[in-house]
């Protein structure tokens, strides 16, 4: 995640860390056999939608002269989601 932080803006990095909630919920279902209720699923859907919107907006924004290459931005986003 620290390498990806050098490739994307800090605000995007912090927003994409919200995926930790979804991963944690998935692991609690898988390993702890917990049951999630309707309000849990709806809140995770909103979190996923927010993370998706931030990632798409950052990946498709117009290039500024002092910004790194477009491929670096997409690679940084990919590394954040995988990490």
Descriptive terms for the model:
single chain, 83 residues, mainly alpha, 5 helices
**Helix count?**
5
**Beta fraction:** under 5%
Order of helices and strands: HHHHH
Rounded to the nearest angstrom, the radius of gyration is 15 Å
Give the total of beta strands. 0
**Helicity, in percent?**
over 70%
Query: How would you sum up the global shape?
Result: elongated
Largest sheet: none
Mean pLDDT: 85
- Unreliable segments of 5+ consecutive residues: none
Compute the number of structural domains. Answer: 1
Q: In short, what is this structure?
A:
With 83 residues, the protein is mainly alpha-helical. It is built from five helices and no strands.
Structure report:
There is one protein chain. With 83 residues, the chain is mostly helical. It has one domain. It is built from five helices and no strands. It has helices spanning 2-5, 10-16, 19-32, 38-59, 70-82. The longest helix has 22 residues, at 38-59. The radius of gyration is 15 Å and the shape is elongated. The model has no long low-confidence stretch (mean pLDDT 85).
């Amino acid at each position: 995640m620290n390498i990806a932080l050098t490739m994307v803006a800090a605000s995007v990095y912090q927003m994409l860390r919200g995926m930790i909630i979804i991963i944690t919920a998935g692991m609690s279902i898988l390993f702890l056999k917990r049951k999630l209720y309707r309000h849990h699923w709806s809140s995770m859907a909103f979190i996923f939608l927010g993370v998706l919107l931030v990632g798409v907006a950052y990946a498709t924004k117009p290039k500024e002269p002092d910004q790194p290459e477009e491929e670096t931005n997409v690679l940084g986003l990919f590394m954040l989601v995988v990490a």
